[in-house]
Design brief:
By secondary structure, the chain is an alpha+beta fold. It has helices at residues 8-16, 25-36, 39-44, 47-50, 58-76, 89-100, 137-146, 167-183, and strands at residues 82-83, 107-113, 118-127, 151-157, 186-193, 198-200. It folds into 2 domains: 3-74, DNA polymerase, domain 1 (Orthogonal Bundle), CATH 1.10.150.20; 77-200, Cytidine Deaminase, domain 2, CATH 3.40.140.10.
Protein backbone atom coordinates (compact mmCIF):
# COMPACT_ATOMS: atom_id res chain seq x y z
CA UNK A 1 0.00 0.00 0.00
CA UNK A 2 3.03 2.26 0.00
CA UNK A 3 4.81 4.26 2.72
CA UNK A 4 1.94 6.76 2.95
CA UNK A 5 -0.14 3.99 4.57
CA UNK A 6 2.34 3.62 7.44
CA UNK A 7 2.17 5.37 10.79
CA UNK A 8 4.92 7.73 11.95
CA UNK A 9 6.12 5.06 14.33
CA UNK A 10 6.38 2.51 11.52
CA UNK A 11 8.23 4.94 9.23
CA UNK A 12 10.72 5.73 11.99
CA UNK A 13 11.19 2.02 12.62
CA UNK A 14 12.07 1.51 8.96
CA UNK A 15 14.67 4.27 9.12
CA UNK A 16 16.20 2.94 12.35
CA UNK A 17 16.31 -0.54 10.82
CA UNK A 18 16.62 -2.86 13.77
CA UNK A 19 16.38 -2.99 17.51
CA UNK A 20 18.70 -4.21 20.25
CA UNK A 21 18.46 -7.20 22.59
CA UNK A 22 15.19 -7.09 24.57
CA UNK A 23 14.08 -3.93 22.73
CA UNK A 24 12.43 -4.12 19.31
CA UNK A 25 12.81 -1.44 16.67
CA UNK A 26 9.11 -0.57 17.07
CA UNK A 27 9.65 0.12 20.78
CA UNK A 28 12.62 2.37 19.97
CA UNK A 29 10.49 4.29 17.45
CA UNK A 30 7.70 4.57 20.03
CA UNK A 31 10.13 5.95 22.61
CA UNK A 32 11.36 8.53 20.09
CA UNK A 33 7.83 9.80 19.55
CA UNK A 34 7.09 9.75 23.28
CA UNK A 35 10.28 11.67 24.08
CA UNK A 36 9.94 14.36 21.41
CA UNK A 37 6.10 14.30 21.10
CA UNK A 38 5.92 14.71 17.33
CA UNK A 39 7.84 14.14 14.09
CA UNK A 40 8.70 17.82 13.65
CA UNK A 41 10.42 17.91 17.04
CA UNK A 42 12.36 14.76 16.11
CA UNK A 43 13.52 16.43 12.88
CA UNK A 44 14.80 19.41 14.86
CA UNK A 45 16.58 17.36 17.54
CA UNK A 46 20.38 17.21 17.60
CA UNK A 47 22.38 14.03 17.11
CA UNK A 48 23.19 14.04 20.81
CA UNK A 49 19.52 14.36 21.80
CA UNK A 50 18.46 11.55 19.48
CA UNK A 51 21.22 9.24 20.66
CA UNK A 52 20.02 9.55 24.26
CA UNK A 53 17.31 7.03 23.34
CA UNK A 54 18.63 3.56 24.15
CA UNK A 55 19.08 1.72 20.87
CA UNK A 56 19.97 4.82 18.88
CA UNK A 57 23.65 5.54 18.63
CA UNK A 58 25.24 8.42 16.76
CA UNK A 59 25.17 6.44 13.49
CA UNK A 60 21.43 5.78 13.65
CA UNK A 61 20.82 9.34 14.80
CA UNK A 62 22.69 10.51 11.70
CA UNK A 63 20.49 8.26 9.54
CA UNK A 64 17.37 9.86 10.99
CA UNK A 65 18.71 13.39 10.42
CA UNK A 66 19.75 12.47 6.87
CA UNK A 67 16.22 11.29 6.04
CA UNK A 68 14.70 14.58 7.17
CA UNK A 69 17.31 16.52 5.19
CA UNK A 70 16.52 14.51 2.05
CA UNK A 71 12.83 15.18 2.59
CA UNK A 72 13.52 18.90 2.54
CA UNK A 73 15.65 18.77 -0.57
CA UNK A 74 13.23 16.72 -2.66
CA UNK A 75 10.95 19.70 -3.24
CA UNK A 76 13.77 22.22 -3.40
CA UNK A 77 15.83 20.72 -6.17
CA UNK A 78 13.31 19.55 -8.76
CA UNK A 79 14.77 17.16 -11.35
CA UNK A 80 12.49 18.47 -14.09
CA UNK A 81 11.99 21.94 -15.47
CA UNK A 82 9.30 23.85 -13.61
CA UNK A 83 7.72 27.27 -14.26
CA UNK A 84 9.39 30.12 -12.45
CA UNK A 85 8.13 33.69 -12.27
CA UNK A 86 11.19 35.95 -12.13
CA UNK A 87 9.02 38.91 -11.18
CA UNK A 88 7.82 37.17 -8.04
CA UNK A 89 10.43 36.99 -5.22
CA UNK A 90 7.92 35.03 -3.12
CA UNK A 91 8.42 32.11 -5.52
CA UNK A 92 12.13 32.02 -4.63
CA UNK A 93 11.38 32.30 -0.93
CA UNK A 94 8.87 29.45 -1.16
CA UNK A 95 11.35 27.29 -3.08
CA UNK A 96 14.19 27.47 -0.58
CA UNK A 97 12.82 28.64 2.80
CA UNK A 98 12.48 25.12 4.20
CA UNK A 99 16.17 24.41 3.63
CA UNK A 100 17.47 27.56 5.35
CA UNK A 101 14.91 28.79 7.88
CA UNK A 102 16.37 27.04 10.95
CA UNK A 103 20.04 27.27 10.01
CA UNK A 104 22.48 28.91 12.41
CA UNK A 105 24.72 30.00 9.52
CA UNK A 106 24.08 31.81 6.26
CA UNK A 107 23.45 29.49 3.31
CA UNK A 108 24.07 31.05 -0.11
CA UNK A 109 21.87 29.47 -2.79
CA UNK A 110 22.03 29.78 -6.56
CA UNK A 111 18.90 29.22 -8.66
CA UNK A 112 19.74 28.44 -12.27
CA UNK A 113 17.33 29.38 -15.07
CA UNK A 114 17.25 28.56 -18.76
CA UNK A 115 16.34 31.02 -21.53
CA UNK A 116 12.63 30.47 -20.82
CA UNK A 117 13.05 31.36 -17.15
CA UNK A 118 12.50 27.80 -16.02
CA UNK A 119 14.45 26.34 -13.11
CA UNK A 120 17.16 23.91 -14.18
CA UNK A 121 18.85 23.60 -10.80
CA UNK A 122 19.29 24.89 -7.27
CA UNK A 123 22.75 24.75 -5.70
CA UNK A 124 24.28 25.65 -2.36
CA UNK A 125 27.39 27.70 -3.11
CA UNK A 126 28.60 28.41 0.42
CA UNK A 127 27.74 28.07 4.10
CA UNK A 128 28.85 30.74 6.56
CA UNK A 129 28.74 34.52 6.91
CA UNK A 130 28.87 36.02 3.43
CA UNK A 131 32.29 37.38 2.51
CA UNK A 132 34.09 37.75 -0.78
CA UNK A 133 36.23 34.74 0.11
CA UNK A 134 33.18 32.52 0.61
CA UNK A 135 31.11 33.78 -2.32
CA UNK A 136 33.47 34.28 -5.22
CA UNK A 137 32.19 34.90 -8.76
CA UNK A 138 34.28 31.96 -9.91
CA UNK A 139 32.28 29.52 -7.78
CA UNK A 140 28.92 31.09 -8.58
CA UNK A 141 29.31 31.22 -12.32
CA UNK A 142 31.10 27.87 -12.57
CA UNK A 143 27.75 26.28 -11.65
CA UNK A 144 25.87 28.49 -14.10
CA UNK A 145 28.24 27.70 -16.98
CA UNK A 146 28.28 23.99 -16.17
CA UNK A 147 24.47 23.85 -16.47
CA UNK A 148 24.28 26.26 -19.43
CA UNK A 149 22.15 28.68 -17.43
CA UNK A 150 20.95 31.82 -19.19
CA UNK A 151 20.36 33.67 -15.93
CA UNK A 152 20.51 33.16 -12.17
CA UNK A 153 18.78 34.26 -9.00
CA UNK A 154 20.87 34.60 -5.83
CA UNK A 155 19.40 33.92 -2.42
CA UNK A 156 20.61 33.52 1.13
CA UNK A 157 19.22 33.56 4.65
CA UNK A 158 19.93 35.80 7.63
CA UNK A 159 19.92 33.66 10.80
CA UNK A 160 19.26 36.83 12.81
CA UNK A 161 15.84 37.02 11.18
CA UNK A 162 16.40 40.54 9.83
CA UNK A 163 16.42 40.44 6.01
CA UNK A 164 18.00 43.88 5.50
CA UNK A 165 21.29 43.59 3.55
CA UNK A 166 24.66 44.10 5.20
CA UNK A 167 27.52 46.02 3.61
CA UNK A 168 29.03 42.71 2.51
CA UNK A 169 25.70 41.71 0.92
CA UNK A 170 25.66 44.92 -1.09
CA UNK A 171 29.29 44.58 -2.20
CA UNK A 172 28.98 40.93 -3.17
CA UNK A 173 25.77 41.51 -5.09
CA UNK A 174 27.33 44.35 -7.08
CA UNK A 175 30.39 42.23 -7.85
CA UNK A 176 28.29 39.25 -9.00
CA UNK A 177 26.04 41.42 -11.18
CA UNK A 178 29.09 42.93 -12.89
CA UNK A 179 30.68 39.50 -13.36
CA UNK A 180 27.44 38.17 -14.85
CA UNK A 181 27.37 40.96 -17.41
CA UNK A 182 30.88 40.06 -18.57
CA UNK A 183 29.93 36.40 -18.92
CA UNK A 184 26.53 37.06 -20.48
CA UNK A 185 24.65 35.46 -17.57
CA UNK A 186 22.12 37.86 -16.07
CA UNK A 187 21.74 38.10 -12.30
CA UNK A 188 17.99 38.65 -12.09
CA UNK A 189 17.66 39.16 -8.35
CA UNK A 190 19.29 38.61 -4.98
CA UNK A 191 16.82 37.71 -2.26
CA UNK A 192 17.61 37.69 1.45
CA UNK A 193 15.32 35.51 3.54
CA UNK A 194 14.59 36.56 7.12
CA UNK A 195 12.52 34.84 9.73
CA UNK A 196 9.26 36.38 8.49
CA UNK A 197 10.02 38.82 5.68
CA UNK A 198 12.40 38.90 2.74
CA UNK A 199 14.43 41.55 0.92
CA UNK A 200 14.57 41.67 -2.89
CA UNK A 201 17.35 43.67 -4.54
CA UNK A 202 15.26 43.78 -7.72
CA UNK A 203 12.22 45.19 -5.93
CA UNK A 204 14.39 47.84 -4.28
CA UNK A 205 15.83 48.88 -7.63
CA UNK A 206 19.36 47.73 -6.72
CA UNK A 207 19.56 45.30 -9.66
Amino acid sequence: MGPEALSSQELLALVIGRGIPKKSVMIIAQELLARFRNVKAISQATLEELSQIKGIGLAKAAQIKACFELGKREDLEPPDLVPFDIKNPEAVVKAIRASVQDKAKEHFKLILLNSRNRVIGISTISIGTLTTSLVHPREVFKEAIMHSAASVVLAHNHPSGDPDPSEDDLKITKKLVESGKILGIEVIDHIIIGKIDHYSFREKGLI
